[in-house]
Amino acid sequence: MKLPALAFVAAALGLSVGAVQAQTASVAKKPVATQKAHAKKAVTKKGVPAKTAKAVEANTPVESLSQRLTDGELAIAKTIQTGTIPCELGAHVTVTADEKNPGFFYVSSGKQRYYMHPVESRTGAVRMEDNRAGALWLQLGNKSMLMNQKLGQRVADACTTPAQRAVAAQLETHPQPALFDAPKP
C-alpha cells in the first residue's frame, strides 16, 4: 500500500514539476521577445541636400510683413494714434510704428511688449492684434484699451490721447441720442 501511494505522490509531483517547468519556459520566452522589440533601431529622418534647399530658397518669393496686410488694414494703420498714452491708475501705453514694416506697431505697457498689426472690424473701432501673445489694442473715438485675451483681462484701460480727450469732452456737452429713446419732434 505504501508503494501505490508513493507512486501517486511522485506522479502528482512529476506533473506539477512539469507544469512549473512549462510556466518557467513561457516566462523565459517573454523577456527575449521584449528584448527583440527594444533591439530595433529608431528610424532617423534624412535631411534635405544643401543643393536642393538652396534651389528652393532661390525660387521661393519672400513676402515682407507689410505685403501680408490688405489695403483696408494698411488704411486702418494710418489712423492709429502713436506716442506715450496715459491711462487710468497711472499706467502708460507706448505705441510706436515699425519703420521697417509699414502697418505694424510696437505696443508696450510696463514689462509687457507686443508686436501688433491692424485688423478690420465690423464696429468701426480701430483694432490691433498680436496673435502670438494674444494681445489686443482697441482704439475708440474717446478712449483706448490694451487687453490680454489669453488671460481675459485688461492690461490698461481708459487710455486717452489729446484728440480722444477732445472727443470725450464733446460727447459730454453734446451726448449722442440713445437707441431706445423716442425721436424728438
- pLDDT averaged over residues: 78
Give the neighbour order of strands across the main sheet: 1-2-3-4-5-6-7-8
Instruction: Return residue spans where pLDDT drops below 50 for at least 5 consecutive residues.
Output: 17-22
Counting H and I runs of at least 4 residues, what is the number of helices? 4
Which series of helices and strands comes N to C? HHHEEEEEEEEH
| Assembly state of the chains shown | single chain
Q: First CA to last CA: what distance?
A: 127 Å
Task: Quickly describe the structure.
This protein has 185 residues and is of the alpha+beta class. The chain has 4 helices and 8 strands.
What does this structure look like?
This protein has helices at 2-39, 50-59, 71-77, 162-173, and strands spanning 83-86, 92-97, 105-109, 112-119, 126-130, 135-139, 144-148, 153-159. It contains 4 helices and 8 strands. Residues 17-22 have low confidence and may be disordered. The chain has an 8-stranded antiparallel sheet with strand order 1-2-3-4-5-6-7-8. It is α+β, with helices and mostly antiparallel strands and 185 residues long. 15% of the residues are buried.
